[in-house]
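Teaching soon. Invent one.


***
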Amino acid sequence: MKTKMGLKREKIIAFCAMIVFFVIGVICYAAFPEKRPDQPIRIMFKSTAGKVLFSHKEHADEDGYGLDCTDCHHYYEKGDPSTISCAECHMSESGEEEKVPKRSDALHSQCIGCHQKYGGGPDECSECHVL
């Protein structure tokens, strides 16, 4: 049978070990962060009809649809992140620029047009606007 002093000592040792492991875990997490992928895996588009979770990896990977960057990003220049964003050209929903469709119209025509042309993919609003 253990004495109260023995139990207290074991609790202190266990508590100290827990603190040491916690500190080691925090240091390892901070020192060895996970490498960011070259391409985004998923992108969340926000809209008034509900958020759309777009799987970039599924569309761009060779194992997926194998689309080239320029299939969606019309003016993409490798290494220039400013040419990736839809918002760079397709400004806000205000539709100020008559020549360039607003972002939601551009995304709808790009996504739905591709799904209709090649088959597959969602074709109902609720299949994309789920969140």
